[in-house]
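Hi W., the iron/sulfur cluster complex you wanted:
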Amino acid sequence: MKVRLDSDVCAGFRACLGLCPQVFEMHDDGYALARVSEVPPEFEEVVRLAASQCPTGAISVNEDCG
Ligand code: SF4
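Structure:
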C-alpha cells in the first residue's frame, strides 16, 4: 500500500502524527509530510484511519500498488 500526503492541502492539525508518527512527520513549515511512500504492513490499518480522519483530505492511499 502506498500513501501520499499533499502538503498543499494539509492544514497542520497533526491528527496523522498522533495516529502514526512512524509514517507521518511535521515539516518545519508546519505542515505534515509522509516519511515513506510504501507503508510497512504493520502500519497499513492506522494509515487508512489517518487518511479517513484527516480533516482536509490531504492523505490518500493506494491499495493497488505494492
Ligand atoms: S491530519 Fe491531515 S491536516 Fe492534519 S497534519 Fe495530518 S495531513 Fe495535515
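Residues 5, 10-16, 32, 54-56, 58-59 surround iron/sulfur cluster (CB under 6 Å).

W.
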